[in-house]
Amino acid sequence: MSSIGGISQGSGYQSLYGKISSGKQLQTAADGAAELAISEKMNSQVRGLEQGSKNVSSGIDAIKIQDSALGEVTDYLQRIKELAVAASNTFTVGDSDRAIYQKEIDQLKEGIQNVASVTTYNEKNLLDGSTGDLEIATDGNGGSVKIKGADSTLEALGIKDFDVTGDFDLKDIDKALEKVSSMRSDAGATQNSLEHLYNINQIGVYNVTASQSRLEDLDVAKAVGNLDKQRLLDTISVMMQKKREEEEENKMGRLFQ
Q1: pTM of the model
Q2: SS3 helix, strand, coil % of the chain, rounded to 5?
Q3: Which one of 97, 131, 218, 247 is least enclosed by Cβ atoms within 10 Å?
Q4: Crossing angle between the packed helical segments 95-118 and 33-88, to the nearest 10 degrees
Q5: CA distances to 4, 32, 175, 234, 238 from 1, in Å
Q6: What does the pLDDT read at residue 53?
Q7: pLDDT tens across 104-125, in order?
Q8: Residue 231 and residue 226: Cα distance in Å, rounded?
Q9: CB atoms within 10 A of CB 182
Q10: For residue 96, how far is the Cα from the chain centroid?
């Protein structure tokens, strides 16, 4: 009866059950070497796109922090300009008044410097000029985008020594505001680019994953049908083998009568 057992051992049940339980038709290279290689390549592409999306999201977050901080700097500068314009009115403002204005201006300048010092993302300073450009890897194929470095320190804005109690020029504040606006404009353009790339990555992940699924996923109904067919063939094979063995036993029995 050992030959009967051999039928079930070679029936391919293990492979069929494995595919049905996993829902995948590609489990080993034997199931399709070329298809498996293509599937692995797709999987690598998906993982690269997904990590690129995470990197892009981090870049967007960093830009949002940077832009929010630059918005505060803008508010500080606008207030400094108001005070400087008031101090320029020599008809009604005296030296003591300008000293009071300057005291507030100094506080505002300190605020600007503090914003430049404490604005960070993942331990990287975003507004003190020390970090430089940040490169964001956007996919697994070497794509990248640079976040332009920003510097909103008093030195970079050219207002470190701005003092309304002495000689001063309102244009210095206007220039500082222009510099901040330029930094915000660069950040906004980069954010738009990153958001566009994020959307492209997500579309890529969806499409590649769909293609991978079509290549890998098992037609369960068809597989179950094949399993039933295999079971039927095995049953028939067992019955035929048993019949042959019975016939052999009958022949041997007649020989010894």
Answers
A1: 0.70
A2: 75, 5, 20
A3: 247
A4: 170
A5: 5, 35, 97, 15, 10
A6: 92
A7: 999 999 999 999 999 999 889 9
A8: 9
A9: 12
A10: 57
- The residues that bridge with 144 in the sheet, in sequence order, are 137
Whole-Å CA distances, 102 to 28, 82, 123, 239, 248: 77, 12, 34, 105, 117
Q: Which helix (H) or strand (E) holds 135?
A: strand 134-137
**Quick one: tokens of 133?**
């450009």
Query: Is the pLDDT score of 2 beyond 50?
Result: no
Task: Please state, in angstroms and rounded to a whole number, the distance separating the CA atoms of residues 247 and 97.
Answer: 124
Residues 6+ apart with CB under 8 A from 236: none
DSSP state of 12: -
> 40 by DSSP, 3-state: which?
helix
CA 166 to each of CA 78, 139, 163, 169, 203: distance values in angstroms, whole numbers, following the listed order: 20, 55, 6, 10, 60
